[in-house]
């Protein structure tokens, strides 16, 4: 049986599968796809390198979170997934998240999981900073001659996405409140999404941070409360 020329190229003269080498145009498309993939991977690696995340935190994902630990954790995951789904809208509105709850309830894991998802999925430049570390670094500029953190502070204030971990951990003082107001107010005015974690709830923020900062945190974030068992202890026991 004779196949038409077009089919003969596909099936061969005897009707058997015939391997067709990639055309120059096909090779060019493949090279373009490989280059784009390599570029995306390099971009993600670069973002993670500059994210401020520890080696352990770079592995925090929604998949590695255990939402069955308690009901509040399951609800938190649902709300995080909705936030990620609507990221472009959240980004445009400058909306963030405020995770609060006791020690070990998974607040930081979920906050960092959001950050990692956005770095991987959307290649969003993001920065993770603990509030005590942030304040310690600012203090050092006063105490260490030649210590200059202008570039780092600009990164904190202007990151596309900022995760501020352990808000309210510092002893309240006028100095702490003023420093936090400068950062939070800038991000509020510029509509830059910020994710906070805290051991204290929204009702305690004014006493800890001052009315001005507290009102902005509440206005720019959706509150998510985790009030279950110690997440780290549960996960550790399951891995035993």
From TrEMBL:
Q: Which domain of life is it from?
A: Bacteria
Q: Name one Pfam family in it.
A: IstB_IS21
Q: Which InterPro entries match?
A: AAA+_ATPase, IstB_ATP-bd, P-loop_NTPase
Show the SUPFAM superfamilies listed in the entry: P-loop containing nucleoside triphosphate hydrolases
* Gene source species: Rubrobacter radiotolerans
All residue ranges annotated as the AAA+ ATPase domain in the record: 93-225
SMART domains from the xrefs? AAA (SM00382)
Give the record's GO biological process terms: DNA replication
The protein's name is DNA replication protein
């Amino acid at each position: 049986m004779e196949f038409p020329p077009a089919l003969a190229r596909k099936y061969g003269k005897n009707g058997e599968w015939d391997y067709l080498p990639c055309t120059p145009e096909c090779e060019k498309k493949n090279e373009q796809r490989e280059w784009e993939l390599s570029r995306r991977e390099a971009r993600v690696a670069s973002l993670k390198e500059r994210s401020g995340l520890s080696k352990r935190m770079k592995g925090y994902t929604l998949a590695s979170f255990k939402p069955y630990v308690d009901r509040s954790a399951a609800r938190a995951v649902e709300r995080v997934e909705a936030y990620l789904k609507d990221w472009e809208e959240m980004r445009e509105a400058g909306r963030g998240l405020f995770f609060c709850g006791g020690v070990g309830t998974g607040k930081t894991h979920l906050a960092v999981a959001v950050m990692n998802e956005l770095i991987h999925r959307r290649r969003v430049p993001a920065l993770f900073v603990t509030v005590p570390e942030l304040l310690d670094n600012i203090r050092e500029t006063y105490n260490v001659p030649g210590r200059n953190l202008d570039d780092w502070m600009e990164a904190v204030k202007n990151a596309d996405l900022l995760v501020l971990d352990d808000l309210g951990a510092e002893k309240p003082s006028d100095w702490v409140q003023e420093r936090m107001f400068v950062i939070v107010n800038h991000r509020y005015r510029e509509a830059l999404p910020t994710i906070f974690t805290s051991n204290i709830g929204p009702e305690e923020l004014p006493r800890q941070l001052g009315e001005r900062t507290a009102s902005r945190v509440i206005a720019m974030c959706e509150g998510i409360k985790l009030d279950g068992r110690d997440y780290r202890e549960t996960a550790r026991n399951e891995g035993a």
